[in-house]
Amino acid sequence: MKWFLLFGILLLAVTTRFLLTHIDRFYVSHEQQLSDPAFLAGDHYWKQRGSGAATHTGNILRIENNDKASHSVFQKVFVSTPGYFRFTFEAAAEDIIPTDKSWAGGSGAIIYWSKAGERLGSRNVILLKADSSYKTYSRIEYLTKEIGSVDIAFRLLRAGGSLLVHAPRLSVMQEFPLYTKIKYGIAMTWLLVAAGLMFLSLSLLSSGKLVALLGLVGVSLVGVLMPEAIISGINLALSQWLPDSFLASAAMAMHKVFGVTGLSGPGAVVSKLGHLVLFVLMGIAVGIGFRKIDVFFSVTCIGVFAWVTETLQTLVNGRTFSVFDFYIDIAGGLIGVFIGVSSAFIYCVIARNFKS
Questions:
Q1: Are 63 and 159 in contact (CB under 8 A)?
Q2: For the domain that residue 95 is a member of, what is the CATH number?
Q3: How far, in Å, CA of 219 to CA of 269, rounded?
Q4: Distance (Å, rounded) from C-alpha 229 to C-alpha 147?
Q5: Do 337 and 232 fall into the same domain?
Q6: pLDDT by residue (tens digit) across 174-183?
Q7: Are residues 12 and 33 in the same domain?
Q8: In which domain, by residue range, is 35 found?
Q9: What pLDDT digit, counting tens, does each position of 238-279 carry?
């Protein structure tokens, strides 16, 4: 029965992800071709920063560096928020010298600014290294009411070579009404499933373990359903309490173990650490109760829950399914289950010896 129930939840999660990724979600209500990059001819919208050079020939913007310089070209665009915006352009790279730094190379980025002119963060759309032919790049972002403008930036950072850009444009997107109705229907279905699982848990775990597990699950779901701007602000605030050396080591470990690249600042590192710690604690809570729930089923439950949480993020504006976060959740759950089962086993052995 429990395996049938678990399979049903997984099937619902897969169906949810399929519907939310394969049904046409947006249509373009307005598209703004960004000002021609011929800034050298007097176009005041584009600006340069750095010690390299930029030229414009035949509708192609070329940014060039030597191996010790960096250069960027950017344009500030004022936006009406909240709403969805799509940043699209074509780009290629020539003779970029490979480096050992993940942030070095040619990039197209979106930089967010508040209405008061404070920088809120940035997100890379691409990061090009070595040679690459022309390819179209596109990213849809949800901009909150706090954002007043964005900088559309093309940069060549500490890497020799050239970055070529063509036809950058910004599109205002609207959701199809049918998609919105499907999303709300899926959300209600998941609320009913969550309520049913809560009642089912009462018969499987003792009150103390149940409270601990439901608390961790609740914290996880709150984090999943939080808007991007709020969760990013929390992660950034938490990062201020951690040493820079620790955050750098954590980012390096995430890269080596899980292949995570392009973490945009200390807040992103804290986000990944939060995933790991939360699922370790969840694994411990489940592992301690291994006598009522066998270990294999416990690990499977954590894997399904990790998939479900990443899937449910697609119901929230600005949140997406992250494969890296899913891997981190699984790893944290496995570590936690091992610690929980080991602790429970050692406790039982010590208690038995003490009684004898």
A1: no
A2: 2.60.120.260
A3: 19
A4: 10
A5: yes
A6: 888 888 888 8
A7: no
A8: 27-174
A9: 888 888 888 888 888 887 887 776 565 677 888 888 888 888
